[in-house]
């Protein structure tokens, strides 16, 4: 039997009231983006089997906000980050980087998950920081000016400029991530994609990096797209959040609403999986989970149907994102929960 979902009052979300006007105008838009990677080819070289990494993702990122994307491993988060960076081109659909006031397209930089492998070990730290400027032709500014820029960025992220002649391996993990953040800030980007920026760090260092990101966003008016499987990090940093499952967005809306009153069964299971001190360990063993669907042959209808405890015959049909009646900014891809909310 489907659950009865009470339509409870939600906490107000600053900057997301009423009609849906957010922190600012849209800076990135994805329209029905699909990405398929070929797995095997026929004798003519044509792909005959694909891994479907993204399956119809439609998102809008607004200027000045922190937009979180959460989901389990393999749901397509990192592929989505690569699409936003133009490192992977959509098989279908469209990515739009909306222009700046001067007519140039919005600039997007990225902070990778592992700072050790994403920073050039052959260069001193100050050269690593100004790499994006050099790549864009900034060598004409002169070495002295570039070094001044690197020193200023180091101070902003909490590093001492006199240490920038060291190489990357001479820094701690937290310091390396600060170097990566400084490098992303160097070209004054419109959007910074944060791909699991704290998962390779100790807990205490994670808190320092998250607080640094919040301070930088406030100081520079930055726009973040945070890719993470850590719900607590998203709760701490993000204004809006999209929940992904098997390459689809199954729920999206203001983070305070999605994480306080989730509507999609997958979002509920994702939040229930987070350990909590106030929740006792279950006495009975957990039920054997259903086999995860693959992304080579996609499931018919709702992708989560085989794992959902509330699935009905109607779930065999494709599910569209449905807006919550009392909260139009909160949408989810589940007709069962939509009926139960009324």
TrEMBL record:
SMART domains tied to this protein: AAA
InterPro entries: AAA+_ATPase (IPR003593), ABC_transp_ATP-bind (IPR050319), ABC_transporter-like_ATP-bd (IPR003439), ABC_transporter-like_CS (IPR017871), Oligopep_ABC_C (IPR013563), P-loop_NTPase (IPR027417)
UniProt cross-references to Pfam families, sorted A to Z: ABC_tran, oligo_HPY
A molecular function (GO) term: ATP binding
Keyword line: ATP-binding, Cell membrane, Membrane, Nucleotide-binding, Transport
Domain ABC transporter: 28-271
NCBIfam families documented for this protein: oligo_HPY
Family of the protein in this entry: Belongs to the ABC transporter superfamily.
Name of protein: ABC transporter ATP-binding protein
Organism: Castellaniella ginsengisoli
């Amino acid at each position: 039997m489907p659950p009865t979902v009470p339509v409870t009052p939600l906490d107000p979300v600053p900057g997301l009231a009423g009609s849906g006007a957010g922190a600012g105008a849209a800076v990135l838009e994805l329209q029905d983006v699909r990405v398929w990677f070929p797995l095997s080819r026929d004798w003519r070289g044509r792909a005959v089997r694909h891994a479907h990494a993204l399956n119809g993702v439609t998102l809008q990122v607004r200027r000045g906000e922190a937009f979180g994307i959460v989901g389990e491993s393999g749901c397509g988060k990192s592929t989505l980050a690569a699409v936003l960076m133009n490192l992977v081109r959509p098989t279908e659909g469209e990515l739009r980087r909306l222009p700046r006031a001067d007519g140039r397209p919005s600039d997007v930089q990225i902070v990778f998950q592992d700072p050790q492998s994403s920073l050039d070990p052959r260069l001193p730290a100050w050269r690593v920081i100004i790499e994006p400027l050099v790549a864009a032709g900034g060598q004409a500014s002169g070495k002295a000016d570039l070094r001044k820029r690197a020193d200023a960025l180091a101070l902003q992220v909490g590093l001492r400029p006199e240490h920038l002649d060291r190489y990357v391996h001479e820094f701690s993990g937290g310091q390396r991530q600060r170097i990566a953040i400084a490098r992303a800030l160097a070209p004054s980007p419109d959007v910074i994609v944060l791909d699991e920026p704290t998962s390779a760090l100790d807990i205490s260092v994670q808190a320092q990096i998250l607080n640094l990101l919040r301070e930088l966003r406030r100081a520079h008016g930055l726009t973040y797209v945070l890719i993470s499987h850590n719900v607590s990090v998203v709760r701490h940093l993000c204004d809006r959040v999209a929940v992904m499952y098997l390459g689809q967005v199954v729920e999206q809306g203001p983070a305070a609403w999605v994480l306080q009153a989730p509507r999609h069964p997958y979002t509920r299971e994702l939040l229930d999986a987070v350990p909590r001190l106030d929740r006792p360990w279950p006495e009975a063993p957990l039920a054997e989970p259903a086999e995860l669907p693959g992304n080579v042959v996609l499931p018919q209808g709702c992708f989560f149907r085989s794992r959902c405890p509330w699935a009905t015959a109607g779930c065999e049909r494709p599910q569209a994102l449905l807006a919550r009646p009392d909260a139009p900014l909160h949408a989810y891809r589940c007709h069962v929960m939509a009926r139960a909310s009324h």
